[in-house]
Amino acid sequence: NTNFDAIVIGGGHNGLAAAATLARKGKRVCVLERASTLGGMMAAEAVTDGVDAAPTPPRLAHLLYNLNPKVERELGLRVQAEPVTTVSLSPTSQHVQIDGNRALNMDGSAHAQATAFSTLHDRLTRYAGLLSRLAVQSPPKLEGAWSDPDTFSELLSLGRLGLGIRGMGKREMREFLRVLLTNVHDLMVDELGDGPLAGAMSADAVRGAFSGPKAPGTLFSLLYRLGNGGGKVLAPVGGMGAVVQAFEDAATRAGCVIKCEQGVERVLVENDRVQGVELTNGERLNAKAVLSSLGPMATIDLAGLAQFDVETVRRSRKMRAKGSVAKLNMVLSALPVFSGLPTALHGARLLLAPSSPYVERAFNPAKYGESSQDPCLELFFPNAKQSDQPQALSALVSFVPHTPAGGEWTSETRDRVIQRVVETLEPLAPGIKSLVQQAELLTPADIEAETGSPGGHWHHGEMGIDQILNVRPINGMAHYSCGVAGLYLCGASAHPGGDITGAPGRNSALQALKDGAL
Fold first, then answer.
1. 394 contacts 61 by C-beta, under 8 angstroms
2. Among residues 203, 227, 225, 221, which one has the least CA distance to residue 465?
3. How far is CA 275 from the centre of its chain?
4. Of 304, 236, 223, which is closest to residue 483 (Cα–Cα)?
5. In terms of C-beta density within 10 A (0-12 exposed, 13-18 middle, 19 or more buried), how is residue 173 classed?
6. Rounded distance, CA 171 to CA 262, Å?
7. Which SS3 state, helix, strand or coil, does residue 30 take?
8. Residue 331, CA distances (Å) to 24, 47, 365, 391, 450 in order
């Protein structure tokens, strides 16, 4: 069959969420994925030899953040996952265990800032819960609100948010408005002092972003992370591949046709309206609507520059999407021993962000195309429970430039980053250098080339104040529609943004239905 109501470009979780949402409404939907496997950044590709690990060590995304509960319920996603403790590592081995709003020393006793941390975490989680109400709908339009029922309902939700803020009381409302656009560094240091607790919160706020914790608006990024379950981090049973399978199963149950190794050459447009797509093999598929998981500029290129006005193209090209996180996959001959870290916590999410200034200093070199000599790290050993076997190490390395100063990434520049990460870990886990058997570094440029993510950005674009809600990804594309009738964005570059939420795909599909595009 070459005729569909809708075609979805990209088989990542947002593309599958969009497809499943439409199919559950009775639409004929086809998902096209250029790779041989679904999942995008969650694809469970084997990247390590000699590690008998179950699940397969992940190539890119290694933990589950922010799966939207409404998406999970609506699609009937069957995801089993276990909560993962976070440990903020300290060079002095005074590590801090973080479980939700609890801060503990390594012996299980309350941390010195436990009460302050719990109070702050609970307050920020309340704020995040209010903002998260806007995540499962299109951003409210400001034009035609009184004549368009759909737009009016969106504005009502904004009004309910305002009532929720007022309902907190004057003191709490003032505090919410005070901190919303502030930087995360000042708030963390003011409330927690400085150290591994403040460092962990600051690092989580800017991970994936091209900014340090002192940049204005970075607290909003932390609130985004806390929006579903207070920042709960999960390790899916069966690995990230099991999450991909859950989305695929939801789409398949709904009746979607899924085709892998089917790249899209161009989106077919006639008389300013989508007609379908042409595949790289020359085949044509017809559809009334096309939903693209790609970024705005890549989507515009597929449809043809001539279909868009100059200002839309200019804004799309200028969208801030500088990837700053590299993924380091390693094979170690054994599980390293971190000084002062109990054996049971070697399977936790380990953060190397010993202070908020440390995170800021780690970002500074990226401004000039350099990698930090003191990188900010997130480490996870997916098979740590089998401590007597070779280990896979999944690490996120912040901050690494998309393109290094002076040219492209080479084996030499990659090796320097890998070597510096190992050298940074050596004092924390003595002997780790001698355990390394294999190492692969995926730079932001690699991530862009392999997944299509704009700039290799883990969120497909900065989550700054100027690129959220009505201006995400750009002014004029905030409601998923790209300007050509029937063409929509459904990936992380669209509202509400990145992480593994499924919300952009679901919202885009519902907007296409509201618009009568199919």
1. no
2. 221
3. 31
4. 304
5. middle
6. 55
7. strand
8. 42, 9, 28, 6, 22
Query: Six-digit token pair at 328?
Result: 């380091």
Partner residues linked to 33 by β-bridges: 260
Q: How far apart are the first and last CA of the chain?
A: 17
3-state secondary structure 436-453: EEEEEEECHHHHHHHHCC
Walk across the sheet containing 81-83 and list its strands.
Answer: 64-65, 233-236, 81-83
**Per-residue model confidence as pLDDT tens digits over 19-75:** 999 999 999 999 999 999 999 888 866 555 656 555 566 789 999 988 999 999 999
Distance CA 459, CA 492 (A): 6
Per the CB < 8 A criterion, the answer to whether 247 and 502 are in contact is yes
Distances (CA, A) of 482 to 5, 34, 189, 322, 512: 18, 22, 42, 22, 11
Cβ 397 vs Cβ 377: under 8 Å: yes
Residues 436-467 have pLDDT tens digits of: 999 999 999 999 998 989 999 989 999 988 89
- Look at residue 152 in the predicted model and tell me its pLDDT: 58
User: Which residue is associated with the tokens 């379908």?
Assistant: 276
